[in-house]
Amino acid sequence: MIPYTKLKEHNRQNLKEVTPLKKPFTLIIEPTNICNFRCIQCFQSISGDNYFNKNKMKMSKECFIKIIDQMKSWKGPKLKVLKLSLYGEPFVNPNFCEMLKIAKLANIAERIETTTNASLLTEDICTKLIEFGLDYMRVSIYSAIQEKNYRVTNSKIDINAIHNNLLMLKRIKQKYKSNIPFVGVKMLDTYSEENDLFVNTYKDVADEVYLDKPHNWISYKGKSFIDDLYGSDVEKAKTDLKISSSNRMACALPFFTLAVRSNGDVSPCCIDWIGGTNIGNVFKETLEDVWYGERMFEFRKMQLKNRKNENESCRNCELFLSDYYTRDNIDGFPVEKLRIQKN
After folding, report:
1. Largest pairwise CA distance in the chain
2. Whether the bond into 77 is cis, omega within 30 of 0
3. Taking all residues of the chain, what is their mean pLDDT, rounded to a whole number?
């Protein structure tokens, strides 16, 4: 299988040349926004009255089936990727494996993937991930050092248990002679010897082990998540961020992505935990109608005209500048060509 880190380059198209798309490349569905970790560099650690905390829930099977049915009815090519995870730990939802089965049978995507902390894997879940056809599983590790992992995740999860869960999955894959799910294990670069410890710890249970670039979630009341994680080393992370960023004007995500949250809210964004980019809800309109609708058109136009400050989430976001996380540059696409004609 293609390594996870190479997928963005596989059969890549120039987004500016194929825009406007009649159908998104990527659909993200959030099985739950609840997580069993409270990482200090994540909004999961924030308390208070905000959109995220007021909408914590597990997606119902009714909502999930509605989304899949809407995609089955939407004519056109398959999605390039269907991602079954967003702002929570997907295996918190006891229906995750059933959702995977429904999605796979629907045959709406070239591949299906998820992102997890791997702490909740069981033998039954591992077996069903193989049986129901999960193609890629990205595993987020927050530290290769036990005490640091406790501090960062605000949990009592033993990192040896996570390693053992991944070893269990590997053995079950071998039992069934399966190459899926492809397991990519990643950790944010620590700029220290911990990187080598991480690689050596997980190379025996993963198909790929790699380091991610640091990034900052949308700021909230002046909070900088990256400062909380790196502390006195934050300047190293910020320097790396600057080096690996480009001076873009528009965010490319709304031109190829849709995300559906646990409550059915629809957004073109995978980082907007505060809900400022919500442009619809699957219980009120179809995903196709959202994609072709006026709110999405205006959102894209806002990006191209460099009016991101008008949106409470976009004006505090820098992820779109990252060459590591965002490969596409849509700057300069003519607004008059934005309108999408339905088939």
Report:
1. 56
2. no
3. 94
Tell me how far apart the alpha carbons of residues 152 and 150 are, in angstroms, rounded to a whole number: 6
Least confident of 109-113, 185-189, 195-199, 237-241: 237-241
- 220 conformational bin, left if phi > 0, alpha if psi -120 to 50, beta if neither: beta
pLDDT band at 163 (very low <50, low <70, confident <90, very high): very high
Write out the DSSP string of 3-69: -GGGGGGTT---HHHHPSPSS-SEEEE-SBS--S---TTSGGG--SSSHHHHT--B--HHHHHHHHH
The dihedral sign for the CA sequence 225, 227, 228, 233? positive
Record the tokens describing residue 294, joined without a space: 């006026």
**Do 314 and 308 contact (CB within 8 A), yes or no?**
yes
Please give the DSSP secondary-structure letter assigned to residue 220: B
Q: Tell me which amino acid residue 78 is.
A: K
Query: Exposed, middle or buried by CB within 10 Å (0-12, 13-18, 19+), for 155?
Result: middle
3-state DSSP helix/strand/coil % of the chain, to nearest 5: 40, 15, 45
Q: DSSP character for 335?
A: G
- Is the separation of the CB atoms in 292 and 342 below 8 Å? yes
How confident is residue 219, by pLDDT bands cut at 50, 70 and 90? confident
126 near 168, Cβ under 8 Å?
Answer: yes
262 with 55: CB under 8 angstroms?
A: yes
Query: 241 vs 43, 165, 214, 237, 293, CA distance in Å?
Result: 20, 32, 7, 6, 35
